[in-house]
Design a protein that fits this description.
Blueprint: H1 4-8, E1 15-18, E2 31-34, H2 37-45, H3 55-65, E3 70-71, H4 73-94, H5 122-130
Helix pairs in contact: 2-4
Amino acid sequence: MKTWTEKLNTDDQHEVKPAPISIAGMKAGEIMLVPTARQIDDFIRALPKGAEMDVRTMRRAMAKEHSAQVTCPITTGFHLRTVAEAAYEAYQRTGDAEAITPFWRVVNVRTPTITKLSFGAAFVLEQRRREGLSDA
């Protein structure tokens, strides 16, 4: 079984294609970015310390970067968890939260991903507190 870090570091390529269905604020036929986990990781790493962004805003920004109208909400959710779990694996190895992807700048108590994390919400909330981010 692959580690989360291995899942993050695959050679997958993103796709830009028409959305097959209407879901989560996107309409069938809109030009959709299907991002990779690495793209989501890179996007989050670029957020400055103390800044936060909700997932919907991240999806809009990523779509714009790739000349798409929307970003796939399902793939984004899967990969957001991969990014968080891989970051936490790195944290477990090093104990250095400053050196990992700051996924807590996107994940908060209202983000569905938080309930799926193997390590629970406490770590996320502590990192958000350290950066002065709201709990919501």
